[in-house]
Sequence to fold (677 residues):
Amino acid sequence: MKPKVVQYLDRGELPLKEGEALALYRAMRRARFFDEKALTLQRQGRLGVYAPFMGQEAAQVGVALALGEGDWVVPSYRESALLLARGLPIHVLILYWRAHPGGWRFPEEVRAVNPYIPIATQIPQAVGLALAGRYRGADWVVATSIGDGGTSEGDFHEGLNFAAVFNAPVLFLVQNNGYAISVPRSRQMRVDFVARRAEGYGIPGVVVDGNDAVAVYLEARKAVERVRKGEGPTLLEALTYRLAPHTTSDDPSRYRTREEEEAWRSKDPILRLGKALEAAGLWGGDAEEALLRELEEEFARELALADQAPEPSPEMIVEHVYKEMGPDQKRAWEALRQGKHVEELW
Amino acid sequence: MVAEKARVLNLVQAINEALDLALARDERVLVFGEDVGRLGGVFRVTEGLQAKYGEGRVFDTPLAESGILGLAIGLAMGGMRPVAEIQFAGFLYPALDQILSHLGRWRHRSRGRVGLPVVVRAPYGGGVHTPEQHADSPEALLAHAPGVKVVIPSSPERAKGLLLAAIEDEDPVFFLEAIKLYRGARAEVPEGYYTLPLGRARVVREGGAATLIGYGGMVEVMLEAAEVAAREGVEVMVVDLETLVPLDEDTLLEAVRETGRAVVVYEAMRTGGFGAEIAARIAEGAIDYLQAPVVRVAGYDAPYPPFSAIEHHYRPSARRVLAALRRVLTY
Fold:
């Protein structure tokens, strides 16, 4: 039986408070704005390799806004929208994608674990972080996210099983964007929906239209509530599409068609929510223009902040490997600080 | 701060006592892994701990090593002090991604914001006729992972103090326990809570003719060889490295400079083993003092033989150490 795909927007519904609906829209628009700017910066050589999320804003922002302040996010590297909606300052995110040490250290209050490159390894870690909250008497929920490709990794399965066995307060967000770089879903799994796997671990799996911000937000909120009450982990599968390449080094024309991309472009989550807001009389006139001006100004300020970050110094290489430097780090640190290499100290 | 009274314990009992004290002292300490709860561990190292501290503090996990390490990382991020057990060091391999990609990187990756005070205990090494993978010595793999520490005790008394220090440490520590010593080594162990510093090698026997260097299960093998040599009038120094990372290079080099001859003993595969690192350090730091090439006594470049009657050929013995000693003395 085909699972029900939860959807609101195309039914013309907007079952949200005005403030919530606008917050969703603004956060998505802001994220898209960042994504476009990031691609430009990358082309100018002012950003390293970058993983765009364009098209997946609803899935990420919907979950981010469903969380409470004390909750944690443990994202993968395509979740810049999630991090921004969570409150990560733009200049820190720019520095992160510049691989500048200033971007390695996320501010504590954002409660976001820096994303990293290995796939699915964050899943069992998120379970541990969730259990730590229980031990410490905090009721934090951990939302961790992964792409459909990542669900082929062993750690995804180990993590889900651990979460289920320990009844850990975790929300697993799977952004099913159809591809693991170039490999389509049909080559990743024989099941039609990742959510079906949840049942195998004894936890609920919910499928949601991932380009419908209202649906993601409402389902995520329900799931977070359930998880917080101690009723166990939930998997939320958001059906979406990556409109841009996997990273700035990728060429999607080799593995997917223009038609497919165009079809998804018409389901752009920002356009869809925008239309619903207009229909409800919550958006329109010069609101969009004013928002874009605001975003432009914010981005310029934040970019300037990122540009002002001091050049990293060579001795930073061996700092913070351990709480206290061991003899080998100390010797290297001394050499690098003097502008030498470690061999030159002998 | 070593407690006065001491009893004779084996390695299993000493480690159990350390875990007991750590659990009692700090509520953030958790002990988990496969079979550590009701069963008390396949070697009974965690015996009685679940009954004493409850299923919340001492618990069994699903059979999944990467999951165990990932769980430990997340728990530590959230402010706990996990002590995970991997049933045999040769079962660490499925968890290497968590170890190499994350456990040792977090402090660096977060510019010091997130340290992971995780201890991973695992039995290693041979000498007791175990099945395949149960006698592996992967310490060099671990030592090669940036950001983790590697500690290998050689006696019950050392193990207790080092484990308590490892649990107090703010960085991830691999604590490898020689299976051969679990019930084979017995020593006086002080009662009560005490720590021994990580990162220090120690001279366990003095002697001027040559220096034997090793750790863990090889210390008793080196001491046995030293005893035989002494009966022939050759006094050799024996150095127990105890901590491989961070390495106490000063003590190591001083010991080699004093004798001018060095034999490095380890039970892992010879190529790329930790003994190769020791030999290289000696070459870099004490070549002028050497009167003979450094000789390694190690396992062979082959998998450790399972169950078998030929195991003792693979694992370095006092006889092989003596042969190497002869080589460096007659060079």
Observations:
- The first helix of chain A runs from residue 18 to 43.
